């Protein structure tokens, strides 16, 4: 960024903070960040306790919003590396999705079957700590026609962190005063994930299923569970047979269908 552009960008902070806190200022924030580098989509999710992700702000067109937001909130967020990083209390900062993704994330079925529908090729995000252990994640998404974020772009964006954090926290303070619908509580969704296939699978097989769904390869599963890759292969064969499926893509499909059934209030059970 040249000196003249830098002056315009830093001067824009005053204009940004003059906007009303909440959606107006979040929209202004997205436009201000666009002066540093192009971004195809912004989305701000808040992960709070036992609630499903709250979409506090986004710039998605209406025709694709259901994929990015509504489908995501039904259950796929449980497999999202950013969400999982929040559950591990990841430090605030600017992070790339690939820093948290398992070894086979971009080859795995969550990416191939769900994430790839979004048309994204790269995602970075500001992690912001909120009160009571909640975390906000402001994602900056780029699609297939856009290049990866450069080192210079990441450095400039990191300089914007104090402004991003202030705007996000103010928006959250406004929103948290509003009661959330009872359906936003996701105890059942999390329990469904933890108990997926419990009627048919052993506890060890359930552990393997959860790692596979999150994008771990057989080698990574073996390392995580301190067992041999050959043992993992045997377990996978048994898992597929018990669930009546033939591939990892069918495993993810079964998982998503059961989450959708849970969201509708139905009983969750594996099919054999």
From TrEMBL:
The keyword Transcription applies. SUPFAM superfamilies: C-terminal effector domain of the bipartite response regulators (SSF46894). SMART domains: HTH_LUXR. Pfam families: GerE. The keyword Transcription applies. GO terms for biological process: regulation of DNA-templated transcription. GO terms for molecular function: DNA binding. It comes from the Bacteria. Residues 194-259 form the HTH luxR-type domain. CDD domains: LuxR_C_like. This is Regulatory protein, luxR family. It comes from Pseudomonas panipatensis. The lineage of its organism: Bacteria, Pseudomonadati, Pseudomonadota, Gammaproteobacteria, Pseudomonadales.
